[in-house]
Amino acid sequence: MGTGPTEKNQACLDLGCGISFLIYPWRDWNAYFYGQDISKVATEILQSRAPQLNSKLFKGISNKPAHHLESYQDSFFDLAIATGFSCYYPLEYWETVLEQVRRVLKPGGFFVFDVIDPSQDMAEDWSILETYLGAEVFLEDLSDWQALIKKSGAKIVKEQSGELFHLYKIRW
Asked: How far apart are CA 73 and CA 161, in angstroms?
């Protein structure tokens, strides 16, 4: 299960995008990229380089956290993606993120995101390393994530396990 768009010309919101527009195949996907990240450095790099790479597909980046989607219209995006950062925030925060993503997705749109699977062998060692490096990690059981998804009114369309992460594709 890939995280990228499946149809051409989809409007896609990449939360916690970092510099993803520069390294993932947005041109192959032929999808309109809207990014959002809390890193000022990543935001500045992407803002300066992405329009040169493909000004047609790159629609902009905001320097905001994942739950601040008020600048986007209701039902605007076909797809939203949030990978690589769920573990740094508690489930209560993700409840707000899910509410906002639901608002900005078109009916039938998908939200693809990953979470740490604490049952994986490397999860505890990885979280200790992250803590040592100064990041607080929230290792939430997959059943708690599934309950949060259900509480938001979404349905899990697909899921995929990896060595550390568990990927969800949901739809409201």
From this structure: 33
Indicate whether 1 belongs to any domain: no
pLDDT of residue 5: 62
Question: Per DSSP, what are the bridge partners of residue 159?
Answer: 168
Range of the domain at 115: 11-171
On whether the CB atoms of residues 112 and 169 are closer than 8 A, the answer is yes
> What is the per-residue pLDDT across 66-115, written as a single tens digit (0 to 9) for each?
999 999 999 999 999 999 999 999 999 999 999 999 999 999 999 999 99
**Which CATH number covers residue 140?**
3.40.50.150
Q: Of 52, 60, 70, which Cα lies nearest the Cα of 34?
A: 60
Which residue in the block uniquely carries the two structure tokens 């349905």?
155
Task: Count the domains in the chain.
Answer: 1
Residues 6 or more apart whose Cβ sits within 8 Å of residue 87: 115, 116, 127, 130, 137, 138, 139
Instruction: Write down the residue that tokens 């979280």 correspond to.
Output: 127
